[in-house]
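Revision sheet: structure tokens.
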Amino acid sequence: MDLRNQIAVVTGVSKGIGLEVVKLLLDKGVTVAGWGRNTPDLEHENFHFFTCDVAVEEQVEKAFQDTVAKLGRDIRILINNAGFGIAGPLETFSSDDWKAMFDTNVHGIFYTTKRLIPGMKEADEGHIINVASIAGLNGVKDFAGYVGTKHAVRGISHSLYLELRDFGIKVSTIYPGSVQTNFFDEIPGMAAHENMMRPVDVALTIVQTLETHPNYFVADVECRPLRPKGKK
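Predicted:
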């Protein structure tokens, strides 16, 4: 896809991978609608921020309507990046935290994607990229809820691709390993460090996936830090 003059929606843009994706897309000549709970520290004539918690469908609907009113319906790129994780053993895990992860990480993808598919079908072209995690490919101790959400993202993505491929719409999933983001801020005993991947590198992989030939489809991308514990 030629990214120049395209319109994209990116969720979870306040920091981390989402913010880096937005910056790279802007450099490519894309007009970006950023949906998020907190306004990012970014000013650009082609960046438009819309306050939105993707876990709340009414807010997604408002962000969608406001985006269409400002930028039009021809939105061919959607990056579902919003998500978070909470750790803890299952038997003591908060039910509210469990539901909150599914509301954002899984239901949020449903709320955003269903609204953008019709426009992509009209254009006979589109690309949806869902940001999952290595946790979507295997189990992780004390992360059953988060792992469950990311396995759900994988299943949704693979099924949706089969629904949309004949309409010229790609659905790709990226599975990053540990990244230097705020993800670890609320997890006791874990902290981001320099041996984790840089958010900009994951963002670059996302943008490169968008730039593929219309008939070339990348289903899954798994990326990890090469030396997660640093040099020996």
